[in-house]
Specification:
- The chain has about 650 residues and is α+β, with helices and mostly antiparallel strands.
- The chain contains 12 helices and 36 strands.
- Strands 29, 30, 31, 32, 33, 35 and 36 form a 7-stranded mixed β-sheet that branches.
- Helix 7 crosses helix 8 and helix 7 (about 390-410) packs across helix 12 (about 635-645).
- The protein is globular and about 95 Å long.
- The N and C termini lie far apart (about 80 Å).
- GO terms for molecular function: ATP binding; DNA ligase (ATP) activity.
- It catalyses: ATP + (deoxyribonucleotide)n-3'-hydroxyl + 5'-phospho-(deoxyribonucleotide)m = (deoxyribonucleotide)n+m + AMP + diphosphate.
- It comes from Amycolatopsis iheyensis.
- This is DNA ligase (ATP).
Length: about 650
């Protein structure tokens, strides 16, 4: 081969992308499974003479930045050219892939580009993890089946596996031979700190630039590329620095740049300063979006040219087009603004099952929930005898629905109803955090609103994260009740942000009658400028919510009471606004008193302590109008998990719809 050919690296290929699997990890002998990595996607292209070029997903040259990877694989190729697809990663002190550390390293590289080329970062070594082989020697492998490409990749010698290695892959058949399942592989990925799992069809070719059904990703966390479109100066302890970022992305249908929310957490002090320095030269007078974002979101905003791409983690993308519960991960120099598309309002993937018990079932086991280890007990204890539904299944339900439930608990003091001996046994309300609660559990001390006299306080639990929810479920806290207001970090109670109507069917009526009353309330509330949302109570009735803006804690009760009395006057034979049981036979009671600041309402997605594991379930107005039988608006835990997989959170738009209380 001529000298000029010997130094010619293989041509760049637009990388194949994985499609989201919709929360269902595929299973069957036609599939293979790989860990989903948390680094920078990169191609390693090697010429016959060993010349190596590293390029990003969008063909940015990474070679100088990751100079220690160049030439590592060449000795094992014996003069053959090669094109590998993979990911460049770094590892933290705990031995897990650490994307934040990679971002810090990236920032240092950008700041030191004026230094000599090939500047090393010996304190933060990188590793290239290959998962596909597109060319070997003169052989183009793009049309070869995954199994063939993977076999050739696995057969390549790895002269320095600390710097270049191959991502582990396993087939369904190999898992089955070990008496394991894809769910077990996912659980191991979670415990090992990987980002998720990618399922790949074993007979599929490599499709450059496409996102086909043959590669399906099942993430354990949701990440999103975003365009930085503005920032807010910090307040209080962050005065003088960057407080948060205003984010955009391109609408997948129209291509318009749209506002998708903000992010205010996940920044170190150094990151805040660096971002502010990067953004100030990009400042512009007006927002860059096709449609102006909500005014309440743009207070103190400083707009910038939409040139910088970053990445966030988030729990939910609402139907209103907003990311919720966000945290910053860092800038992405390997991505272009034009490539950033807004996500779709789809649910989070279900969490993997807990790791295998370390002790026999029925005793104590230790599991990893989020970033905490918890000890669980008596998982085989039956809490719903009619269904044989165990405490383990309760914990599993709350773990899997956590992404949808936690936003409705955020910042709200929680009251438990506990059933330690099952729904047929004794129950009790619990407001104070019980003895033995973990030290990491967030709590808030508030004055008692009970009848014990002034001066008493209650230490309420705040359930903000998955470990908090698992801890509560392990105590058999089946029901979770919250007020219509939230608290600030300094334990100040905010004004109510939700209006609620509790529709309680009296003797001789059912949830079908509640649905008819709900339809009437819907029309009145809409006429008053509010946006009502509906959910079942999980018992016999249903509730309506509206997001509201008010400074008067007493105003929601007064408004709700007037509305309840109005409907009762119009149809006294079917509706009552009086709590007395004697007035409720054959009528639906509109309980307006749930808006009293001292009252709580069962949280959306909470289980109820009834004969069956029924759930307080958000429903559509089409379902309300179509309800003609009790079963039409009755949902169990299993039903709800299927519903959120299909619909996401039907109450997701509640906060964004807030309007002044009439």
């Amino acid at each position: 081969m001529a000298a000029h050919d010997a130094s010619r690296v293989p041509a760049w290929v637009d990388p194949m992308l994985a499609k989201a699997d919709g929360g269902r990890l595929r299973s069957g002998p036609e599939w293979a499974y790989e860990y989903k990595l948390d680094g920078y996607r990169a191609a390693m292209r090697i010429a016959p003479d060993g010349t190596t070029v590293l390029t990003s997903r969008n063909n940015i040259d990474f070679t100088a930045e990751f100079a220690e990877l160049a030439g590592v694989l060449a000795p094992g190729l014996d003069g053959q050219a090669a094109h590998l697809d993979g990911e460049v990663v770094t590892y933290g002190e705990d031995g897990r892939i650490d994307f934040e550390l990679m971002q810090e390293r990236r920032g240092r590289w950008v700041r030191h580009q004026s230094a000599p080329k090939g500047l090393a970062f010996d304190d933060v070594p990188v590793r290239f993890l290959a998962f596909d082989l597109l060319r070997l020697g003169d052989r183009d492998l793009l049309k070869e089946p995954y199994d063939v490409r993977r076999g050739l990749l696995a057969g390549l010698p790895m002269p320095d596996p600390y710097r270049v290695s191959v991502v582990r892959a396993v087939t369904f058949a190999e898992l089955a031979a070990d008496r394991r399942t894809p769910a077990d592989f996912l659980a191991h990925a979670a415990s090992a700190g990987y980002e998720g799992v990618v399922a790949k069809l074993r007979n599929s070719g490599y499709s450059p630039g496409q996102r086909p059904d043959s590669w399906l990703k099942h993430p354990l966390i949701r990440t999103q590329e975003v365009i930085v479109c503005g920032w807010r100066p910090g307040q209080r302890s962050f005065t003088g620095t960057l407080g948060g970022l205003l984010l955009g992305a391109h609408d997948p249908g129209t291509g318009d740049l749209v506002y998708i929310g903000d992010v205010g957490t996940g920044f170190s002090q150094a990151t805040r300063a660096e971002l502010q320095a990067r953004l100030e030269p990009l400042e512009r007078r007006t927002h860059p979006f096709a449609v102006a974002p909500p005014r309440e979101d743009t207070v103190r905003a400083r707009w910038v040219e939409p040139r910088l791409v970053g990445e966030i983690v988030y729990r939910q993308f609402t139907r209103a087009g907003r990311v919720r519960h966000t945290a910053w991960r860092g800038l992405r120099a390997d991505k272009e603004p034009g490539d950033v598309l807004a996500p779709r309002a789809t649910p989070l993937p279900e969490l993997p099952p807990p790791p295998a018990p370390t002790e026999p079932a029925g005793q104590r086991i230790t599991v990893q929930a989020g970033n905490r280890q918890l000890t669980l007990s008596n998982l085989d204890k039956v809490l719903y005898p009619a269904d044989g539904f165990t405490k383990g299944e309760v914990i599993n339900y709350y773990s899997r629905v956590a992404a949808f439930l936690l936003p409705h608990l955020a910042g709200r003091p929680v009251t438990f109803i506990r059933y330690p001996n099952g729904v047929d046994g004794e129950k009790w309300f619990e407001k104070n955090v019980p003895n033995g609660a973990p030290a990491w559990l967030h709590t808030v001390r508030l004055p008692s609103t009970g009848s014990r006299g002034s001066g008493d306080t209650i230490d309420y639990p705040l359930l903000d994260e998955l470990p908090d929810l698992v801890w509560a479920a392990n105590m058999a806290a089946l029901e979770l009740h919250v007020p219509q207001w939230t608290v600030t970090p300094d334990a100040t109670r905010r004004a109510p942000d939700r209006l609620v109507f509790d529709l309680d069917p009296g003797p001789g009526t059912t949830v079908v009658d509640c649905a008819r009353v709900a339809e009437r309330l819907h029309d009145v509330l809409v006429a008053d400028g509010l946006t009502p949302f509906a959910k079942t109570s999980g018992s016999k009735g249903m509730q309506l919510y509206c997001g509201i803006e008010t400074d008067d804690p007493a105003a929601p009760s007064a408004y709700a009471k007037d509305l309840a009395r109005r409907l009762a006057r119009e149809t006294p034979d079917t509706v009552t606004a009086v709590m007395a049981k004697a007035q409720r036979t054959g009528r639906v009671f509109i309980d307006w008193s749930q808006n009293n600041p001292a009252k709580t309402t069962v949280a959306p997605y909470s289980l109820r302590g009834r004969d069956h594991p029924a759930v307080s379930t958000p429903v559509t107005w089409a379902e309300v109008r179509a309800c003609r039988h009790v079963l039409h608006l009755t949902f169990t835990a299993e039903d709800v998990l299927e519903r959120v997989a299909e619909h996401g959170d039907l109450l997701a738009g509640l906060p964004e719809s807030a309007a002044p209380l009439p």
